[in-house]
Amino acid sequence: MSSRLEAEALYKVFGRRPDAAVERLRQGADREELRADGATAAVIDASFTVEPGQIFVVMGLSGSGKSTLLRMLNGLLEPTAGSVRFDGDDLTALSDRDLRVVRARKISMVFQHFALFPHRSVLENAAYGLAVQGVPRREREARAAEALSLCGLAGWEKSWPDELSGGMQQRVGLARALATDADLLLMDESFSALDPLIRRDMQDQLLQLQQTLKKTIVFITHDLNEAMRLGDRIAVMRDGRIVQTGTAEDILLRPENDYVASFTQDVDRSRVLTASAVMDGDVRGDEADCGCETAAPDTPFGELCAISARLTHPVAVLDKKGKLVGVVPRQRLVGFLGDEQSAPSVCASPRDRGGDKGGDKVVTRA
């Protein structure tokens, strides 16, 4: 499978002599040295790929360069150096006219602050991208209405933006992006202006839509919990550089440095980890033969704890063919939670809580 989006050695420098600043960065200069000379390095040597149908999350604190990086992906900002390829085409080499066509038809953007037109109805707002493309009115309204329905806004087509809640307004922005049927969605902190409960609801909405539409999405956030909930892969940025790229489990369990590790300290591991991440894979046998509950590699951590609490031995993890691929001892669950004191209430079985420690054997058949 070829990558849908590829960023290679991207640099963006604002200010004096940007090309010379890139060369200095390549030779080891840091941002502070450049700033003293009147240049600001927003993005430094950023490379990554995004596969079709993948949600790729870029996360970092304010000033890390994530939004600047996003704007280089659709040509709103021209890289100082490096290239962006979309479906094999080098966007950095396109003429302004061709780039506008790509942005109008193949790449849509969902902004943080809704960006709805107050004098247009909900339907007209959702259809705006299609109007820019020159799609006839009847067709664009039908497509916009379908996108609004997908986003849970059927029946609100004739309403005005100020009649909607913040979450509903953001759904209109998402529907506008979906209506164009663009191959790539760029989402710049799209949910960060929402209240926590509405924000989680929008995350649910996006994940639900993704199961059906399988869009390729680049999602920007400063919230690691949001990144881990949404991202198939995550890139962590610091001071303009991508310091680690990987799955949520990679970031959480195998941080590249102390900076990444510091982010993961407050993450709710039970919402991220699965059986495959915590199991002991050094096992022998073809299938579990204990007549009790088992888990699959993708069983969520919380569900795994519940299964463990009902058993007196490690949980057997079976693949789709029923083959034993690992076991999860209770103490391993406690270790991943990182809180020994919570073990009795979270992962302990009734027998353990009564003082009778069950055996640690999983009966298998070779």
From TrEMBL:
Cellular component per GO? membrane
Tell me, what's a Pfam family for it? ABC_tran
Biological process annotations from GO = glycine betaine transport; response to osmotic stress
Question: Record keywords: Nucleotide-binding included?
Answer: yes
For region Disordered, the annotated ranges are: 342-366
UniProt GO molecular function: ATP binding; ATP hydrolysis activity
Domain ABC transporter, chain residue ranges per copy: 5-264
The record's similarity note reads: Belongs to the ABC transporter superfamily.
What is the recorded name of this protein?
Glycine/betaine ABC transporter ATP-binding protein
Q: Which organism is it from?
A: Streptomyces resistomycificus
Q: What is the lineage of its organism?
A: Bacteria, Bacillati, Actinomycetota, Actinomycetes, Kitasatosporales
